[in-house]
Amino acid sequence: MKRLAAMLFVALSACALHAQGAVAQMEEDLIPPDRSFVSPERFGFEFHLGPYHPDFDGEDTFDRFFSDDSGLLVALELDVIGYRMQDTFYLGGGGGIGWAKFSGNTIDDAGEATSEETELEIVPLNVIGVFRLDALPRRWGVPFIFTGKLGYQWMYWTTESGGSDEANGWSLGLLWAGQVALDLDTFEPSAARRMDEEWGINHSFLFFEISGFEPNSDSLPLGDTSWSVGLGFIM
Amino acid sequence: MTLPRAMATSLKTLALAAGALVLAALAPAAASAQSITVTINSIDGEAVNTLGEYRLGLQDCLDDVELEFELMGVPSDKSTIDVYEGNNCNDPSRDSDDTDTCDYLTSFETQESTELIVTLNASVLGCMEGTSQQPTLWFLAVDSSESGEEVGQRYGTFEIEVDASAPNAPTDVEGGTGENQIPVEWETSDSDLDSFIIYIDSSPTDGDAGIGCGSSVLVEGQPPPSGGVTTKTINEANATSANLRPSDLDGTRAAVAVVAVDDAGNESPLSNISCVEIVPTTSFWEDYQSDPNAVDGGCPCAAVGPVHVENGWPILLALCALGLRRRRARAATEDVR
Question: Which domains does chain A have, with CATH numbers?
Fold first, then answer.
């Protein structure tokens, strides 16, 4: 009887071990073969939000009508990465588009605001060269990326008053920007890897940017040194 | 296991009684089977939308608008359709003199067809000002072989939505000033509104723009005047402002009041009276042009000329060069692979 029980115990143990081995094999199958996958880096994408306040060459024309409107400027930028020195910097170029609208009231002969609306709408279009230095986060784990941009901007503008269009045109000039960004990959490297594997997004960052637009002398003086914040991706 | 005989007999009796009760409950329902389908086609010649959404207003009753119904499934062996308004008008035991619950409205000949178009006038519904009602119309088929007595088994019903209650007048109406666009703003508290009507009296009696303003024809809280004013309709249910044009005014000043119109066409009383005024204004663009430092007294940059664009060519060329270089590098990498 004891012998039979011992044989049964051995047989059951063998079955259990075999089953355990099979489960372990299945778990191994679930692990991706290559966790170090890195997708190609081709583009940079940025979404900008920030106030805009045309300086009008120091005249108070703009402030007289739109002093209460900071005209939130919403903008998108897409850069093509032309050259990449691994873990050091990107060099590329691209373009952007934005939109802002300023609303105020017309003024009467006494200079008092009436109830009638007057508006100015701008749509900046630009081409830019981009130099993005990311050696700090990639080499030493310091989460700051520095970016410089230089380009040319065509800012379409249109103005209306009392529901009727009054004028429109383009203001053209140089555009520059300096950006400091907080590299999000440094804080969540595993999430960054997953984003790359699933979405092809290599890096993501939050940024603060100072930019300047200097229209030439023939243009409506819509230039401004402004700031914006936003979210960017390297894809 | 067996039940005592007495208990088994009792259970059987109970089962029979329950069955009888169920049959009794079902019988009246079968007797009052509704077989005529009634839909509303149009109100005063205007087609009701495909969803059958409509509401009659007080003015519909006063104007005695025509309601056209389509009846489907009218029995061909009946010769007349009697129309009642009330409750349980299909009940055969109903007293024909019981006018408290069922009012006879009219009758129609069926003309040996299972479809019938009938037209009623809204005034027969007896709309009461200030109330909302949902009277039910009953279309009863009358058996010609029984001397015009209603059978009660072949009928159709239709519930009419009558809203004879006027919406609240808009409040805090405030007129503005402008040269090409003179705003009027207001507030509302009703949710079933359809549009607004601005009443404009171009001969105000006193008051300054945006403050109190008198009018000999516009009186707050009273019905709108039938003449002596011009009107502008704003066909937007949620509107809280509108802009008048100088052409809407006969002169440079006017008193205005706003009336709300609900989706049954009922009009509210007049709102408070305010003033609008046409004044010369200076816009942003006019102001910029008058600035001595303005670019050539205007803006020659209104069109993109080659002089301006060529400043950007170096950057465009640089970008193209970068793109080409990247493309070549990628092609070389693929060749190596």
Answer: 45-234 (2.40.160.20)
State the DSSP code for A219: S
Given a contact cutoff of 8 angstroms between Cβ atoms, the answer to whether A73 and A98 are in contact is yes
In DSSP notation, A142-160 reads --EEEEEEEEEEEEEEEEE
pLDDT band for B213, please (50, 70, 90 cuts). confident
Where in chain B are all domains bearing CATH 2.60.40.10?
37-163, 171-278
Q: Which of A61-75, A81-95, B62-76, B110-124 is the least confident region?
A: B110-124
CATH no., domain B37-163: 2.60.40.10
C-alpha angle A69-A72-A180 in degrees, rounded to nearest 5? 130
Q: What is the ipTM of this complex?
A: 0.76
Residue to substitute from B281, B307, B325, B326, interface A, most A β-carbons within 10 A: B281
Chain A, 197 to 216: residues with Cβ < 8 Å from chain B are: 216
The answer to whether residues B313 and A231 touch, using CB atoms and an 8 Å cutoff, is no
Distance from CA of B322 to the nearest CA of A (A): 5
Residue of A89 and B95 predicted with greater confidence? A89
Average pLDDT estimate for B64-90? 82
CATH architecture of the region B171-278: Sandwich (2.60)
Picking from A191-195, B110-114, B226-230, which range would have the lowest pLDDT averaged per residue?
B110-114
